[in-house]
Design brief:
With about 290 residues, the chain is α+β, with helices and mostly antiparallel strands. The chain folds into two domains: about 120 residues, Diaminopimelate Epimerase, Chain A, domain 1 (Roll); about 160 residues, Diaminopimelate Epimerase, Chain A, domain 1, CATH 3.10.310. Helix content is about 25%, strand content about 40%. Strands 1-2-3-4-6-7-8-17 form an eight-stranded mixed barrel. The longest helix has 15 residues. About 50% of the residues are buried.
């Protein structure tokens, strides 16, 4: 950004809640064409949210027809990340408030992400479709280090949910707690977990507890982004949906509800939709502007 250039408007939206006091806040810059990487990182750090999103013109040929297309980049207070679900939802809501609901498409570092936005009774809801996901096993030594950093004994894990690294735009380590008490007790070694996550190229650790067949409570430590815990994590929700389906923990056709943020006082609700024959995962939620 040139010295005399005006700073672009930085919007504040929350995703996965219809209340500004819930969900996960994100910064949204709808025109970042005059910003360089350092500018975007500085804005994200100044806001202090887990991520902020920055829009510029799309790559040539990204979308046709009536679709509205953009290039989108995501920055945490410490670094750029390849994909962020909640900032995507927040950005889609911000665009819908200005140009109406409809179909959007975003070019991310992880790939192309379509987003459908609807509005009913004044509530805006956005649904993103992930890039093609996959999972991979984690080495025993790396798992032991993750548990040591979290302060979780291996006996506190749910044996029905094998630890895996899951990807649906970003990499997340999925660990399932056997009890809600285990999930509620989150006091981890920030530096130790951050070092492991950098080495394994992880964005968050997706901690889950299964409340029923299709309802889960989740928490996401995010030390690599400079944030102790992410209040609502769309990218991790997509990765978890792919993980649960691949391991046969849910049906190939399923709608899962993930509750996140209660422990932070910012409750949010994420809907994960799986469709048989389509490897991609859909994550949806409401959003609203923060005054």
């Amino acid at each position: 950004m040139t010295t005399n250039a005006p700073r672009p408007e930085v919007l504040r939206y929350t995703a996965f809640s219809s209340s500004p006091d819930g969900g996960n806040p994100a910064g949204v810059v709808l025109d970042a064409s005059g910003l360089d990487d350092d500018d975007m990182l500085a804005i994200a750090a100044d806001l202090g949210y887990s991520e902020s999103a920055f829009l510029t013109a799309p790559p040539e040929g990204l979308a046709g027809g009536a679709q509205r297309a953009y290039r989108i980049r995501y920055f945490s207070p410490k670094a750029e990340v390849p994909f962020c679900g909640h900032a995507t939802i927040a950005t889609a809501v911000a665009l819908a408030e200005r140009a109406g609901p409809g179909e959007l498409v975003f070019a991310t570092r992880a790939g192309t992400v379509p987003v459908s936005v609807t509005q009913e009774d004044g509530t805006v809801r956005a649904t993103l479709t992930s890039v093609e996901p996959h999972t991979e096993e984690i080495a025993d030594a790396d798992l032991a280090e993750a548990l040591a950093a979290l302060g979780w004994p291996a006996a506190d894990l749910d044996p029905a949910f094998p630890p895996r690294v899951a990807f649906a735009g970003a990499r997340h380590l999925v660990l399932a707690a056997a009890t809600p008490t285990r999930l509620a007790d989150l006091a981890y070694d920030f530096a130790r977990l951050e070092a492991l996550m950098h080495r394994l190229d992880l964005t968050t650790v997706q901690l889950v507890w299964r409340a029923s067949a299709d309802v889960f409570h989740v928490r996401d430590p995010f030390p690599v982004g400079g944030v102790v815990e992410d209040p609502a994590t769309g990218a991790a929700a997509a990765a978890f949906g792919a993980y649960a389906r691949e391991l046969g923990l849910v049906p190939e056709d399923a709608v899962l509800t993930l509750y996140q943020g209660e422990d932070l006082g910012r409750p949010g609700e994420l809907t994960v939709t799986l469709r048989a024959g389509d490897p991609r995962v859909r994550v949806s939620g409401t959003g609203t502007r923060i005054a």
